[in-house]
């Protein structure tokens, strides 16, 4: 397996990224088996480079397409600190502007993490992601899960809010939510299919990690490793998979 970068493994929230990194690591390895170790990666809504910079540290070339000037400034600083400026390109644009700022079918891997829930038109963004991905390439999507939000409210006694979340068409609490929608596994895979991408893997992220206190998680006692193991073991198993705080999906663009 590709080593998970130290910057990632040392974060307190390791269990939250372990599943995504394990899927990305396997995809990186799969690509390398084709004879080229350097991937061309586009990170849409990549923020300050939480994924982009570690990926550049692994030797890949990453273009971050991100509308926030502040996030891009942090990204540039982070890339400079890590000594990977030459492998990270920062572009200020929205997801739906992707066709104007990157070449079609120019990425071996496209990331879109925690973005589809905050933008106006996820369908348009997915079409743009599909267009930027090379044939045979992969798209990594991470989104908020309605089920976990309902469950989280219910187990803290907020039953009325939980029921609102359960029936709201977008899976949000009207007027109070910071995001525009939450997804469920079925609605997400349907959306991906409509874009022409083929879903290969679905994992749950944060099956219990976000529901329990830090002391229960054992982070303070140094046993966060056990939580990480639990998250990895349950991430692809139904029904756990569909209960995580986030849904991670790896889709592939077919070769025509
Ligand atoms: C929750 S952050 C996720 C950042 C990063 N992908 C990560 O996983 O750490 C959401 C990001 O989406 C960006 N964003 C907001 N609207 C967007 C849009 N229309 N197109 C692309 N990115 C957008 C925000 O500026 C922010 O950086």
Describe the 3D structure.
- The chain has 2 domains: 209 residues, 3-Layer(aba) Sandwich (Rossmann fold); 36 residues, no CATH class.
- 40% of the residues lie in helices and 19% in strands.
- A 7-stranded mixed β-sheet has the order 3-2-1-4-5-7-6, with helices on both faces.
- Helix 2 packs across helix 11.
- The protein is built from 11 helices and 7 strands.
- Helix 6 links the parallel strand 4 and strand 5.
- The chain is α/β, with parallel strands linked by helices and 256 residues long.
- The radius of gyration is 18 Å and the shape is globular.
- S-adenosylmethionine binds next to loops.
Keywords:
alpha/beta, globular, binds S-adenosylmethionine, Rossmann fold, seven-stranded mixed β-sheet, 2 domains, 7 strands, 256 residues
Write the layout of secondary structure elements.
Blueprint: H1 6-9, H2 14-32, E1 40-44, H3 52-57, E2 61-65, H4 69-82, E3 88-91, H5 98-101, E4 107-113, H6 122-132, E5 133-144, H7 146-155, H8 159-167, H9 185-194, E6 198-205, H10 214-217, H11 224-234, E7 246-252
Parallel strand pairs: 1-2, 1-4, 2-3, 4-5
Antiparallel strand pairs: 5-7, 6-7
Helix pairs in contact: 2-11, 7-8
The structure holds S-adenosylmethionine.
Structural class assignment = alpha/beta
- CATH class of the largest domain, named Alpha Beta
Query: β content, as a range?
Result: 15-25%
The rounded distance between the terminal residues' Cα atoms is 30 Å
The helix count comes to 11
Q: What is the CATH homologous superfamily assignment of the largest domain? A: Vaccinia Virus protein VP39
Largest sheet: 7 strands, mixed
Q: Say how many strands there are.
A: 7
Shape: globular
Uncertain runs are: none
- In CATH, the topology of the largest domain is named Rossmann fold
